[in-house]
TrEMBL record:
Lineage: Bacteria, Bacillati, Actinomycetota, Actinomycetes, Nakamurellales
Residue span(s) of domain N-acetyltransferase: 113-269
InterPro entries attached to this UniProt entry: Acyl_CoA_acyltransferase, GNAT_dom, Ribosomal_N-acetyltransferase
Keyword Transferase listed: yes
Organism: Nakamurella antarctica
Keyword annotations of the record: Transferase
GO terms under cellular component: cytoplasm
Name used for this protein in its record: N-acetyltransferase
Length: 274
């Protein structure tokens, strides 16, 4: 029996990820540390996250540290899990899929200009529920570094972060993230405001779910969203995911975040008959 606690912080400049980094979401990285549940030294068995190095490393901005502290209460983030699956030991995720009229592929550094054109035009649209928007504005070089970080993360067996392209046009971004731990992947997405309500997030999530279940050992796919993010909730509902009990959020949230996230899941068997 183990207790898992997680932390998240922003990557202000590209850097070599710590060895226990198991997931990332846009500029934010999620760090998961697994300790024996009976390790009483860590706050009565609840566990604590020690942000060693945080204060000494200038690339981690203070606001993200505050978010991390808020989101890392072991009492709310704790989960019994089996240790041993880290990015290094996991299968590398497939890097692309073309389905349902969309092209989803691992972000490439040379695509930074496309991202740089879309994000500034969508800051207000994305700000409420996307914590990383707090890092805007970013330079083109910073975006290129970020895409390099994502590519390196994928290459080392970590998350798959993709651009969502339709007819050659960038319409959003998404990914398969390892946050759920062994056997699971979590889908993330955003769509540019000029392309909303055209079924893009739903189609992209359908394609990513298909893709996730091609990965050996993946038995469940999850989608989470702030409980107030009703548009986001429609995507897993439409795709036939089952809603599990809401839970405190363990990742950095945007300013509209309530701290409570809706959690949806589909298993491989359920998806097969869907
Ligand atoms: C959430 C988001 C990704 C949806 O993208 P999209 O491509 O427009 O999604 P789809 O067109 O596939 O589906 C949207 C669904 O939400 C519904 N919807 C749209 N706005 C809504 C609102 N304000 N309240 C409730 N439902 C809403 C649509 O009617 C549709 O539902 P339906 O399929 O039952 O008709 C997009 O709004 C977005 O990028 N938001 C900002 C970033 C974000 O919140 N990302 C998700 C974080 S968990």
């Amino acid at each position: 029996m183990y207790l898992q606690v997680s932390a998240c912080w922003c990557v202000h400049r590209s850097s070599t990820p710590p060895s226990r980094t198991v997931g990332s979401s846009q500029n934010y990285r999620h760090w998961v540390y697994t300790i024996p549940a009976d390790h009483r030294f860590f706050g009565g068995g609840a566990g604590i996250v020690v942000f060693w190095g945080v204060l000494s490393r200038a690339r981690w901005r203070m606001h993200s540290i505050r978010l991390a502290v808020r989101s890392c209460s072991p009492l709310v983030c704790g989960a019994m899990t089996d240790p041993g699956t880290t990015a290094a030991s996991a299968h590398r995720l497939p890097k692309q899929t073309q389905r349902y009229g969309l092209d989803l592929h691992l972000w490439q550094p040379e695509e930074a200009a496309a991202l740089h054109a879309v994000i500034p035009a969508n800051v207000d649209h994305l700000r409420p529920y996307m914590a990383w928007i707090a890092l805007e504005p970013q330079t083109l070089d910073q975006r290129r570094e970020l895409l390099e970080t994502w590519a390196a993360d994928w290459a080392s067996g970590g998350d798959l972060t993709v651009g969502i392209w339709r007819a050659g046009q960038l319409v959003g971004s998404g990914g398969l993230h390892r946050r759920p731990g062994p056997g699971g992947l979590e889908i993330g997405y955003w769509v540019a405001r000029d392309h909303l309500n055209q079924g893009i997030a739903t189609a992209a999530s359908r394609a990513l779910t298909d893709l996730a279940f091609t990965v050996p050992g993946i038995e469940r796919v999850q989608i989470t969203h702030d409980v107030n993010n009703l548009a986001s909730a429609r995507i897993p509902a439409t795709l036939g995911f089952r809603r599990l009990p809401d839970r405190p959020s363990c990742i950095a949230q945007g300013p509209a975040g309530t701290g409570i996230e809706g959690l949806w899941q589909v298993t491989k068997d359920e998806w097969r008959v869907h």
